[in-house]
Each structure stands twice: as C-alpha cells, then as structure tokens.
C-alpha cells in the first residue's frame, strides 16, 4: 500500500513539489499488486510494453523523468497494455512513496545514461544509497537486471553492487536476459556490433 504520508526533506518537498504530487496522486488513484517490477529509464516504452505483454500475470511500472514518459504512456495505450503504467518521476522519489518494503519483485536498468563528466557522476542510478533503498524494497530473491554498452560504466556498477552486503551476483549464463524483449537502445547497439555488458544481481 502506498505510503502517501511519507515526506522528504523540506528542500526536496519545496523544489520537487509538482513531481511529488504527481506520484502521490498516482498512489491515491491506484492500488498496486503485492509484487511490482520496475523499469528505470523507460524512454518511449518499447521494452515496458513488450515485457508486460509477455508476462501478463505481472505488473510493471516504468519511471521516466523526461518528457518521454508521455510517449511511453501513449504506447501502452496503443498496444492495449493493462498491466503496466508509466510515471514521469525520479525513482528515488517514487520508491519511498509507492513501493512497500518487500514489494519490488525486480528492477530493470537497461542502457542507462553513463553521465560521463566527473561532476555528473552523482547522477548515476547505481549508488550505495540507492542500493540501500532497493534492498529495503526488494524481498530476498528479487533480481536486478542491468545492461549497458559502456565497459567502464559496467565496471563501476559491478564494483558498487559487489560492495553492497545485501546483493550477490547471478551467473549470466544461468539467467540470460534473452527471454526478455530487447529495448530500442539494445537493438541499436546490436546492429552496430557494439559489445553489451550484462550485470545480474540478486537480493540476498
């Protein structure tokens, strides 16, 4: 059940008020199922729509903080997908309000922005504090599925995940992502012959 009474610090509440109200309004309008699959960086919604159709018994939520969230919602509607939604929101704001402890079945992070500049590194999704939040929201056995075409970025994410006590790596050969649809970015990368780095972790 959504924690609509959750409040961030005063600065966040003030300067991100519109986004936070959007999240809380979604929580008031919809009761999420016991387990939720989350995609961060939904883009135009191709992967989200196709994976929701592939697994109609699961519920998928997409977090896309850019204007592309509108495109993703339109795609879900066009494809007749009823077991997925998209929110124009930062996952760091969405998770504490909408997702209960133990409710996050899995997390998809497919070809995220590597934020090349050193001063922007703090914007990368996989940070120790964010993993603390994921560990809180994910039950034992929950999965993190990550793919990127940036080798140094993959190394950084592996290092951060390996240092967290609540997660352990999965053997990529035992858990291939090929049974999931390919995102738009992944299709582009494959056509270009660019190596893909796959990172799978499990909540202990």
Automatic annotation (TrEMBL):
<dbReference type="InterPro" id="IPR029063">
    <property type="entry name" value="SAM-dependent_MTases_sf"/>
</dbReference>
<feature type="binding site">
    <location>
        <position position="117"/>
    </location>
    <ligand>
        <name>substrate</name>
    </ligand>
</feature>
<dbReference type="GO" id="GO:0008176">
    <property type="term" value="F:tRNA (guanine(46)-N7)-methyltransferase activity"/>
</dbReference>
<comment type="similarity">
    <text>Belongs to the class I-like SAM-binding methyltransferase superfamily. TrmB family.</text>
</comment>
<protein>
    <recommendedName>
        <fullName>tRNA (guanine-N(7)-)-methyltransferase</fullName>
        <ecNumber>2.1.1.33</ecNumber>
    </recommendedName>
</protein>
<feature type="binding site">
    <location>
        <position position="149"/>
    </location>
    <ligand>
        <name>substrate</name>
    </ligand>
</feature>
<feature type="binding site">
    <location>
        <position position="113"/>
    </location>
    <ligand>
        <name>S-adenosyl-L-methionine</name>
    </ligand>
</feature>
<keyword id="KW-0489">Methyltransferase</keyword>
<dbReference type="Pfam" id="PF02390">
    <property type="entry name" value="Methyltransf_4"/>
</dbReference>
<dbReference type="GO" id="GO:0043527">
    <property type="term" value="C:tRNA methyltransferase complex"/>
</dbReference>
<keyword id="KW-0819">tRNA processing</keyword>
<feature type="binding site">
    <location>
        <position position="90"/>
    </location>
    <ligand>
        <name>S-adenosyl-L-methionine</name>
    </ligand>
</feature>
<comment type="pathway">
    <text>tRNA modification; N(7)-methylguanine-tRNA biosynthesis.</text>
</comment>
<feature type="binding site">
    <location>
        <position position="64"/>
    </location>
    <ligand>
        <name>S-adenosyl-L-methionine</name>
    </ligand>
</feature>
<dbReference type="InterPro" id="IPR003358">
    <property type="entry name" value="tRNA_(Gua-N-7)_MeTrfase_Trmb"/>
</dbReference>
<dbReference type="InterPro" id="IPR055361">
    <property type="entry name" value="tRNA_methyltr_TrmB_bact"/>
</dbReference>
<keyword id="KW-0808">Transferase</keyword>
<keyword id="KW-0949">S-adenosyl-L-methionine</keyword>
<comment type="function">
    <text>Catalyzes the formation of N(7)-methylguanine at position 46 (m7G46) in tRNA.</text>
</comment>
<feature type="binding site">
    <location>
        <position position="39"/>
    </location>
    <ligand>
        <name>S-adenosyl-L-methionine</name>
    </ligand>
</feature>
